[in-house]
Amino acid sequence: MPVRNILLTATLLLTIFAAVFYTSCKKDACDNVICLNLGACDGGGCVCPVGFEGERCEILSRDKFIKAYNGHDTCSSDTVYYDSYRIYFKAQLTDPREMILKNLLNDPDDSAYCTMQGVDTFTFQGSNNSLTFIGTGKMSNDSLWLDYHVERDTSAYDCRFFGQGLR
Question: Contact, 68 vs 87, CB < 8 A?
């Protein structure tokens, strides 16, 4: 009978030890996390590549930019100031990180290719005849800022556009 008690006690202790050991093991927080669009799980959450956002990297960052903005430019050259006008963005269908900016400097022929750099930031560049421009843009809530450099023939100047998104 004492051997039976010893075996029963040993079995009970081994079962308790195994249960404590199993529950104390750290489980992989990324086991059941699925990140889309080449996102990677880190600590149970998705880290999204540039151009994507959301809990599972399911949202194209550029989509919030795709609309029209009313605003105006102020430029470093005394002769360049544009009254309020509208610019707008179109999606570039070949790359989810790209979009096209139209009507910069209030000229329907001026467009720029934009590339997302972060969730709310992008770079852009474009040209039209003797005009070239290059710059950066950012969005906060529904406000858009563009900082860019313009070269036209033999002159150059810097501009800033500020606009509000239209619904």
Answer: yes
Give the DSSP H or E segment for 155.
Answer: strand 155-165
Alpha carbon distance 18, 62 (integer Å): 51
- Whether 143 is in a domain gets the answer yes
User: Measured over all CA atoms, what is the biggest interatomic distance in the chain, rounded to whole angstroms?
Assistant: 106
Question: What total of structural domains would you count in the chain?
Answer: 2
Looking at residue 12, its pLDDT comes to 66
Phi, psi of 11 (to 5 degrees): -65, -45
User: How far apart are the C-alpha atoms of 135 and 50, rounded to whole Å?
Assistant: 18
Q: Which of 27, 57, 87 is the last residue of a domain?
A: 57
- Residue range(s) defining the domain that contains residue 68: 61-165
**What are 92-124's pLDDT values in tens digits?**
888 989 999 999 988 888 899 999 999 999 999
150 neighbors 158 (Cβ within 8 angstroms): yes
Cα separation, 1 vs 49, in Å, equals 67
pTM (predicted TM-score): 0.78
